[in-house]
Every structure is written in C-alpha cells, then in structure tokens.
Design a protein that fits this description.
The protein is an all-alpha fold. The protein is built from 7 helices and no strands.
Length: 110
C-alpha cells in the first residue's frame, strides 16, 4: 500500500492518539530491552509485535483505528465502520507491513 504525504499527515494525529492511549511508549521500551538480548532484530518481527499489541488493545482505540483506515482507503468513516472486518484488517496489516514503516519500527527498537 502506497500512502501519499497528505494521507500520512492526516493519519499522524490519530497514530499519536493510539500511541498515547495504549501507553505504547512503555511497551516499546519493554521490547527494546528484549531486543537488546538478540544479535539481530528483524524489522518484520518488530512490526508484527507492535501490530499484535495494538490489536490486543484495539477496543481502547477503535475510533482512531477507523479514522486511520478511512484515510488509508480514502473512504468515508461510516463506510469503514460498516465494511467487512477482514477488509479493515487487511488494510491495517498493509499499513503496518509497509517496508518503510517496518524499517522505522526496527530502528526504534534498537
């Protein structure tokens, strides 16, 4: 999935809300400690760990996730709320397995 600058900048406030509401900073620090024990950190593993944490706690950030998906899919928020769960998860996965984003997670975990 390729995202435009406009899409990314529109998503950023929601991403920060997700980050703050889930206390992701503490989770990230915990992961950093775990990753320090490894010789090599796989960017995909780091991204998958982050996505799993977000999904596990998604009930706390449901509206923010819907907003991010709506921006990524260029759809109205109500359309996203009512679309197939699997479509939403596929888009969420595409965003968080984006090569540039996984590199960002890898760098953040080291």
């Amino acid at each position: 999935m390729e995202l435009t600058n406009d899409q990314v900048f529109d998503m950023l406030p929601y991403a920060v809300e997700i980050y703050e509401k889930l206390d992701f900073d503490n989770y990230r620090k915990k992961l950093q400690e775990e990753y320090k024990k490894k010789k090599k950190v796989d960017a995909v593993d780091a991204a998958v760990d982050a996505v799993k944490y977000i999904l596990k706690n998604s009930k706390n950030v449901k509206e923010e996730i819907f907003q991010v998906i709506a921006i990524a899919e260029k759809k109205d928020l109500e359309v996203v709320r009512n679309q197939s769960f699997f479509k939403t998860i596929a888009t969420f996965k595409a965003i968080f397995t984006n090569e540039e984003l996984t590199t960002f997670f890898k760098d953040a975990m080291q």
